[in-house]
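Thread: quick sanity check before group meeting

JM: Hey all, I'm pulling together slides for Thursday and realized we never actually wrote out the predicted structure for the chain we discussed last week. Dropping the sequence here so it's in one place. If anyone has concerns about the input, flag it before I start.
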Amino acid sequence: MTLVAFIAGFTISISTNSSATLGYSLESLVDLVSSLIVVWRFHGGEATSKEELEKREKRASIGIAGLMVILGICVFSVAIEHLSEGHAPSALHQLISLSVPSLLIFFVLGMLKFNIAIKTQSPAMKKDAVCSLGGAVLSLGVLIGVGLFQSDDAIWWFDAFVAIIISILLALYGIRTLVKNILEDKKYWTIKFWMEGKIYKNVDEQTLNGDNAVGTHDIELSDAGDNL
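JM (edit): ok, ran it. Output follows.
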């Protein structure tokens, strides 16, 4: 569904000069990739060790967050260009025929993914759900923009405005995850992280398990003696 949405959205966005529809198509592409990443993350199920699944979870979550940032930058750039050049949307019937089913399908899909994310406690699945809901919101923005443009062609800019807002929110959501993992000392900019999926420990944990390992061990032995 996301593959079809990407192809249809990209084709229609070219013929209609719709920034929100272009954003929708690119978001659908990211949604497709993020869904494939989530499939890889859960692949193997109970036959795969818990440690391996945790490694996949962290890499999948960071990967999808990075895609969100890239998507936000691309959509924001195109929307700004359309605003600066005064590109008003055209072929409104095509925009409506794409947006109505997309709004319904991706809203339901996003809510289903959120439900699964809660049950599996998977941040990667949650981000995949956000991607799907982002497509639904962009579709809603296109519909509202078409309605406003038909009532007053001076509001041609609303379509690009929606694209800008959604692109900023998606990018900030992705940046939040990337920054959070930097603070947790997850070195995702290294090849080793992606090849091995090592779960890097926090700085505090490294201190306890490294330089202060002897002191910690002594405390544990002391507690054990007191209990005896």
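AS: nice. Residues 50-85 form the longest helix (36 residues). The radius of gyration is 23 Å.
JM: adding both to the slides.
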